[in-house]
Amino acid sequence: MIRILDVSKQYDRETLVLQQIELHMKTGVMGLLGFNGAGKSTLLKIMAGIEEPTAGDVMICGYSVRSEPDEVRSRIGYLPQHFEMYPHLTGREMLDYACTLKGIRSRKKRKEIVTRLLYELNLEAKAKDKIKTYSTGMKQRLGLAQAMIGEPPVLIIDEPTVGLDPEEKMRVRKLLAAYGREHTVVLSTHILSDVENCCTHAAVLDEGKIRWFGIPDCKSEYREILMEGHHRHA
Ligand SMILES: Nc1ncnc2c1ncn2[C@@H]1O[C@H](COP(=O)(O)OP(=O)(O)OP(=O)(O)O)[C@@H](O)[C@H]1O
C-alpha cells in the first residue's frame, strides 16, 4: 500500500530534515513517533503529496507521489496538523462540501456518507451548528471525518488525538484501528498510549532517521529509544 523509498528532505542548506527514509507498510495502522522537530509532519506531507522530497519517492497503492500525484490524491485521505475550516459552515455543510471536492456528485450519496461519518465521529448532535461554535476536539473529529470520505485505501493523519478528551481519544483510536483492518493508516503522535492502543506497527523517527520499526508492545525496545531521546532533547 505504502512504500517510502529512500526519501530525504532538505528545506535549507544546513538542515537535512529526513535522511534516506525507507519504510514499507501493508494494511494496518502505523504510528510515527518522535520528538518535536523530528520530521514526522514533513514525512506525512511528502506521503500526501503536499511537500516534494529532495530525493527518493513514495509509492501509494503503486503510484508515485512525484510523477502521478492525481492518482495518489484520489487514494488518500489526509488530515494535516493545522486544518483550516470554514467557520460559518455547519459540520454537515462542511462534510457535504468536502464530498463535492472529492467528486461525489450524487446528493443522495453525499447525504448517506455525511450521515454515517457524523455518527461514527459522534458529531450528530452538533451537525447543524456552525463550526465556529465547535470545541478543538470537535473540529479534530470533523477533520478526521473529511479525511475518511470515500473510504480511501490510505489514511494519513497528523496527530489524531490532539485536543480530544479521554473518551473521544478511545473512540478515535477504535475507529482508526477498525479502519486499519482493511486499509492502511499512518498517524503521527507524541503519545505512547495512542500507539499501544491502536497501532499494529510503530516507527521512531529521530533526527531525520528511522531509529526503530516494528510491532509495538510494552516490552518493545522503542520505549527505551524514546526515553534515551527524551533525555537528549531535555
Ligand atoms: N517549510 C519549512 N521550511 C523550513 N523548515 C521547516 C519547514 N517545515 C518544517 N521545517 C523544519 O523541519 C524540521 C521538522 O519539522 P516537522 O514539523 O516535520 O517535525 P515534527 O516531528 O512533525 O514536529 P512536531 O512534533 O513539533 O510537529 C523542524 O526543524 C522544522 O523547523
UniProtKB/TrEMBL annotation:
Ranges for domain ABC transporter: 2-232
Keywords recorded for this protein, A-Z: ATP-binding, Nucleotide-binding, Transport
Gene Ontology MF term list: ATP binding
UniProt entry tagged with the keyword Nucleotide-binding: yes
Pfam families: ABC_tran (PF00005)
Keyword Transport: yes
PANTHER family for the chain: ABC TRANSPORTER, ATP-BINDING PROTEIN
Family, similarity comment: Belongs to the ABC transporter superfamily.
Name of the protein described by the UniProt record: ATP-binding cassette domain-containing protein
Species of provenance: Marinicrinis lubricantis
